[in-house]
Amino acid sequence: MDNHYNISEGVLQDRVNGKVMPWRPKKKRTLILARSFHRLGKHKKANRIWWCSCELEFRVEPETGRKRLKNAGFCRERLCNMCAWRKSLKTFHQVSKVMDEVQRRHENLQPVFLTLTVRNCEGDKLMNTLDMMFYGWGLLRKHRKIKRIAHGWFRALEVTYNRKDDTYHPHFHAILLVDKSYFKGKDYMQTADWVQMWRTACALDYDPICDIRKIKASKGKYKAVAEIAKYTVKDSDYLHEDNDELTDRLVGVLSSALRGRRLYGFGGVMQTIAKELGMEKPGEGDLVHIDDDAIREDVANLIEVYNWSFGVADYIRRR
After folding, report:
1. Radius of gyration of the chain measured on its C-alpha atoms
2. pLDDT tens across 62-95, in order?
3. Which of 1, 30, 137, 186 is most deeply packed, by most CB within 10 A?
C-alpha cells in the first residue's frame, strides 16, 4: 500500500492509495459506544473503548514521506468499531493471501461463495439463534458429503439489524474450495440441496434462504473476499447518536450474543496454508501490522505521533 499524510496545522489526514482512511469518524463513534457501556454499568469496558487508539504512532520514510502505523493502543473489545475496522482490513489481507496460495498450489480447486441464512429473530432470541447456527455449521462441515466435496473453507458471521421490525438477521458467509470437476460430478449440489442440508443441520421447521455461486475471475475473487471480510456488525446498525435508549438496547443484546464466539474461521486446505504462512487466527492478534507492506527500520528514522484531542475532535500531531 502507498501511504501519504497531508498535514494541515497538525491534523492527521491518512491516505492509502488515494483513499482517506476513516481514523477520525471511527474514533468519534468509539466515544458513543463507550458512553453506552457506561450507561449499561460496564465501566471497565467503557474505559477501554474510550481510550482506544487515542495515540497513533507512525514510522516515516523521510525521502518518500511513506508512513506505516507503528503503535496504537487498540482496546480489542468485540463491538469497538475502530478495532472492527482494523480486523476487517486484516481479514481481507489474510483471506486474499491464502486464496493466492491456493490458486498457486492447487490449480484443480475452484472457490465458491456460500451464504447461509435463518429467519430474523428478536433480541431475546439472538443468543439461542446463534447457538443453533454454530451447531448447525459444525454438523454441516462434518457431513460426509461436504467433507468429500469441500477441501477447504473460510467462514464468517454477519449480523444485521432491521430497525423497522426491531429484529436481527444473523447469517454465515463462506468460501468453499471444490474440485473443478465438482460442477459436472455426481456430488454436485443445487441450491435446493443446500437449503435442505442447512435446514436439517439447524433443525429448522422452514426452508431457509441459501445462496451458492462460483467465484470466476480474479476480480470476482476479491469481491467475494471483501464480502467475507465485512464487519460482523456494522456500527451504523447499533450506534445511534439521536437515540441513547435504542443504542443501549442494541449494544447490550449484541455484546451478550457475540461474547466468546469464533466470528471467523479457516478449515481444511485454507487452514493448513494459513498455518504454514504463520498467520494468526482470523480476527485475532496484531491489529497494527495488518499486512506485509512494512518499512525498513534502518531507513525509517522519523517517527510521527498523533494524539486524539477531545476538544478539537480530531487527531493532532504531537511530534
Report:
1. 21
2. 776 677 889 999 999 999 999 999 999 999 889 9
3. 30
